[in-house]
Model the fold of this input.
Amino acid sequence: MSESLRLEVDRRDGLAVIYTEGYINNQGGEEIARAAYQLIEGGHQTLLLNLTGTKIVNSIGISILIEIIEKMMEIGGRLAFCCLTPTIEKTFHIMGLAQYAGIYPDEPAAVHGLAPGAGDGPPAGA
Amino acid sequence: MSSARTAASATGWEELEELARRDPAGRPYLERLLVRWAEEAGAAGAALYVERDGALRRELVAGEGSFPGRLEGGELQGGTVHRVDGGAVAALGAAGPAGGPPPQPATLLLASALRALTLGERLKRQLFQESYRVVELESLYEVGLAIAATLDLDQLSEEILLRAVSLLDARRGALYRREGDDFRLDRTFGGDAREALAADAPELAELLAARARASDGEAGSSGVPAGPVGLLPGARHLLAVPVGIDGRPRGLLVVGDKESRRGVGPFGASDRRTLSMFANQAAIALENARLHRQALEKERLERELELAAEIQRQLLPEGAPEVPGYELVGWNRPARTVGGDYYDMLPRDDGRIALTVADVTGKGIGAALLVSTLHSALRLSIGPAGDATALAARLNRHILDSSAANKFITLLTAELDPATGGIAYVNAGHNPGLLLRAGAGREVVELEPGGLPLGLLPGSAYRGGTAELAPGDLLCLYTDGITECASPADEEFGVGRLVDCLAELRAAPLPEVVAAIDRRTRDFADGLPQLDDQTLILLRRRPA
Done:
């Protein structure tokens, strides 16, 4: 099982999707943050984190994800997650991430939910 | 939080009051307040430093100048530093009161905002830690309940390892299962792990007993044992707990290198408690899954055995052929689902009938497979009538070629000419057939062995014999499961009791004779389980 996180970024009109594969820990979280801040600097205000390839996240990774959410809130942007394992989804709810970021079961639902005019707040969860 | 540089521009008290009302610890308020402070201090640039983890770390920058990320020793080269509660304000290029007293009331307001900021951060950290404690408890709960419902052993092992690594903020981990005297690697996460280690290795005992251990890199400096060599190669810090039930270790859970934002470090006492609780829950879940897998395997074997039994039943005659002037019945009951006894009642083209009983050494699947081989060989090898000894020799060769060295078969085959009552037989190491003469006495003719069991030696020769079945005579071919049936006193049923039964029921219908023999052997065993397969062929010539 791979330790390091692999990322892919898909830039679309008005939306950037970050695909992760591997452990979201300190290193993995920093990589996601780096990619997210680059996208923000590049003008993207709507980000989707697709966690299909991630089965595990630790508290350091979560704290970094919270910082990304805070950054998005500072700039008035939106962030959502999709394709979470049941364990990760439950963890995100307990840790309060779901209050400030949308959580969707799959990418089409997330893209629809993040579309302009789809709603101001995050959905109640998947 | 990353530091931010804010533009220096005139900031009025009204604007600051409005921003403070919105959020007294918010960044917009802090940024504008720092700008105001720099203006009043006559500084070209100013930076706000917050005390975190014992160091002054840069939070905000206003105006011009280069400010380091950390204020080493609380001083700024070429500038001034004013300590406030919870941090400091640094100024560069001060034109006014630099070096003198800081501007009031901007400094007081900055200190107050800084206190609100650090207090907010502390609350946020506490909330995060408490929330994550809920995640830990939730994981323990789920391992006990939800995961216990996962009966797929592989999936469960994977889930347990991932949760352990995640819960402990570990960078890597490994799960071992106990096999005999060793722990064998089941799976690993985040890197390689040693494949096996002796369960009684002293260095493992030390690791399990330690509150938290450093491994190779720090062993020398801390004096803490490193644990088994190469347990998690490259890991600097290890924590291991047994996965056991009732004090019996079934496995080992190892995590390596606890993460923080600053890198990796050792695990603490609370980590050990958490991992131990988790491992206790995991042990029960793993045991449930293991027992479930065993049950499934047993069920599969039982299904296969039942199928084998069905196949074996197909090898035995469905009923006895009609032989005018004679009564004939066959009966078999295996000791297990499948057995090593065999019998056949095969009518020949010329009206003769070949009766065969056989007993394969051993019981169960191995014996049943050889029974199947014998059945095929017998049907394919049977030659012209009166050729019993040649048949035995052919069967001997075939069984020798197609069975294990320690497997052999005793067999008695007798060919009846219904017209005359003549019997030609060959007995390959089997129990002698019993021919009970008609009349009131107990005169018995035995169909004695004329050679070794089939499959014992190559080139075995067989001597046949003949007998004659007179009206009222009863022939009994049987296997030793009947005569060697044992009582609780360890006495055998024996040939004598079998002959008694045949003699007492010499005129009864043959199914009744079979039922009587079955009943008497059961009574004799007095509840002991049947240890060997039992087979009977009874042939009686009707009285004239």
Summary: Chain B touches chain A at residues 1, 27, 127-128, 131-132, 134-135, 138, 142, 159, 162-163, 165-167, 169-172, 187-191, 259-261, 263 (CB under 8 Å). Chain B has three domains: 4-124, 145-291, 316-541. The longest strand of chain B covers residues 248-260. Confidence is low (pLDDT under 50) at residues 211-225 of chain B.
